[in-house]
Amino acid sequence: MSIRIPLTLALALPLAAAAEAPPQQYADLGNVHLESGAVIKDCKLGYRTLGSLNAARSNAVVFLPWHTGKSVEAVSLLGPKGLFNTAGRYVIVVDAIGNGVACSPSNSATQHGTAFPAFTVRDMVESEYRLLTEKLGLKHVHAVVGYSMGATQTFQWMVSHPGFMDVAVPIAGTPRQTSYDLLFWRTEEAAMLADPDYANGEYKQNPKLPLYHQIFSLNFDTPAYRAAQTKPAEVDKFIAETIADDPDAADANDMRWQMRAFLTQDIGDDAAAKVKARVHIINPRQDLIVNPTPALAFARRIRAATTVLEGACGHSAVVCATAQIRAAVDRALK
Fold first, then answer.
1. How many CA atoms within 13 Å lie on the side-chain side of 129?
2. Which of 43, 60, 5 is nearest to 123 (CA)?
3. Are the CB atoms for 84 and 78 separated by under 8 Å?
4. Which residues are catalytic?
5. Which of 154, 248, 259, 311 could form an S-S bond across to 146 if both were Cys, CB 3.0 to 4.6 Å?
6. What is the pLDDT at residue 10?
7. Phi-psi region of 187 (alpha: psi -120 to 50; beta: other; left: phi over 0)
8. Alpha carbon distance 181, 184 (integer Å)
9. In this structure, which CATH number among 3.40.309.10, 3.40.640.10, 3.40.50.2000, 3.40.50.1820 belongs to the domain 7-180+256-333?
10. For residues 241 and 7, is the Cβ–Cβ distance under 8 A?
């Protein structure tokens, strides 16, 4: 789950061919009713598509990006050298609620900033279901694939709409939060709230949140990976790059609202009995951003295929274990 694309990921984005991203598209969902009873007014989801739907309408693959990840960023991680091969597939890359492209605290005209309703991962999935069925006319897709928070949404897709996909591939996601996850993300939220520039969400200019980003960077890799990649004399430079002003950084309230959705996520004790899709679960063993234990336990319960990434990359395996992930996803999508 990434707040903004960290330096290591930004440097690796040209994994796919450096082609121009397909055009940004929007689906107007009108008012979105949330499970809390609140309503997001005038909600739009963004999306981009790669390839074409075949005559049998059987080659659609939905890709769900990370925390505040945008479709324009995500398409750069796909393709023959990316997370999976898009050839012969109709890939729909979704901009989820709260990512700053879809309806979000940062862009709502009538519920701006802290007035934006709190939403859950289940709410995000329901809006995505409406996008696919009402706006794109799909009654079924071949697969749902997600990375990080997108993978957590993929777990929810398995139980909210179990017959909608043939295959589900969550990468570095979780079906529920552990105490470690809650501790990490509440620490991140505390760092945000303690920053005077955040002003409890009532800021006039998007705050830089240096401590928030530094904590994230501390956990994005593993201690072994960071020690190998960064010499002690280079730490100051690494920290400066981590917290440097980024004109493309996600809006702070967008980050917090999606983070709050992640914090409450739990697919439920009866989830395993609902799953119908063929599932391949991919998790880094040493992930310090999303604890892999619940995902791997769920895999055993539903007898899903698994790929456990044993290297020292941690959550950044999407960058440094791309080839292993791609091989696993391409096998799953056959």
1. 19
2. 43
3. yes
4. 148, 287, 315
5. 154
6. 41
7. alpha
8. 5
9. 3.40.50.1820
10. yes
Identity (one letter) of the amino acid at 320?
A: C
**pLDDT averaged per 10 residues in sequence order, the chain, 334 residues:** 42 45 96 98 98 97 97 93 95 98 98 98 98 97 98 98 98 97 97 98 97 96 96 96 92 98 95 98 97 98 97 92 96 96
Nearest CA among 165, 147, 57 for reference residue 93: 147
Q: At what angle do helices 210-220 and 179-194 cross, to 10 degrees?
A: 150
Residues for the chain: how many in total? 334
3-state per-residue secondary structure call for 100-144: CCCCCCCCCCCCCHHHCCCCCHHHHHHHHHHHHHHHCCCCCEEEE
Quick one: tokens of 25? 């598209």
What is the C-alpha to C-alpha distance for residues 175 and 274, in angstroms, rounded to an integer?
13
How confident is the model at residue 48, as a pLDDT?
Answer: 98
The helices-and-strands tally (H runs, E runs) of the chain is 12, 8
- What are the residues whose beta carbons fall under 8 Å from the beta carbon of 62, sequence distance 6 or more? 91, 92, 94, 128, 132, 141, 143, 144, 145, 165
For residues 42 and 30, what is the distance between their CA atoms, to the nearest angstrom?
5
Listed by start position, the domains of the chain span: 7-180+256-333
